[in-house]
From TrEMBL:
It comes from Hymenobacter lapidiphilus. Pfam families: DDE_Tnp_1 (PF01609), DUF4096 (PF13340). Residues 11-83 form the Insertion element IS402-like domain. Residues 100-256 form the Transposase IS4-like domain. GO terms for biological process: DNA transposition. The lineage of its organism: Bacteria, Pseudomonadati, Bacteroidota, Cytophagia, Cytophagales. This is IS5 family transposase. InterPro entries: IS402-like_dom (IPR025161), Transposase_11 (IPR002559). GO terms for molecular function: DNA binding; transposase activity.
Amino acid sequence: MAQRSGYPSDVTDDEWTFVAPYLALVREDASQRQHALRAVFNALRYLVKTGCGWRYLPHDLPPWPAVYQQWARWRDNRCFEHMMADLRELARVLAGREAEPTAVILDSRTVQSTPESGARAGYDGAKRRKGSKVHVAVDTLGHLLAAVVTPANVTDRGQVDALCERVQQVTGQKVQVAYVDQGYTGEDAAYAAAVHDIDLQVIAKPEGQTGFVLLPRRWVVERSFGWAARFRRLARDYERLALTMHQFHFLAFVTLLLAKGVFRATSP
């Protein structure tokens, strides 16, 4: 049999050394394990990067039921969320910043629904699209801190409380200000942020300006959405569970930071 040559999405040896402790929920040599954990992780990365269906995973990767079952364990334990928190801290320190941010940017993107996700889809009148909204909070470097997945008809203002609560949880109450666009105007949104000791600052377009405008601070989250768009599984909402779409976003941002090699800062 020909030796497997691998795919561009495969984890490298250095990356695997870093991520393995986060993913080994049981011993590598546990009797119930039939497939190498690294091979399962490679299959998951292949799926998220290429956007293929579970049953269309290549045959030189572990069988899709085994990959899905292990993914469900990682998803429910929020392994990639924990991994992202540590990678984000490393990336910030290497960039000469404090480990935890004091400022974040909030925004949302609407993802087109599919038959699998249609049961929880809503219609976004502004984008004229039926699907889900992924509400995110990123730091000023564009790294993901928190995410909330809702039907697309849910307003951005309505998720300020959930995002700010999660942001303060993961940063240890360090965030002081959140930058947002005009979709977050109103006393309710400002109050929801203030409850969590965050000052909500709306960055508006210059008066009389129409069309696309590169706004201070706000462009960072747009770049983050561009990074996410490189993962085809995130281009549409193929997931029956909102938690799956939620955790796939963390996996995508983990993959991006692993590729930058920030984890090498932990090496002796």
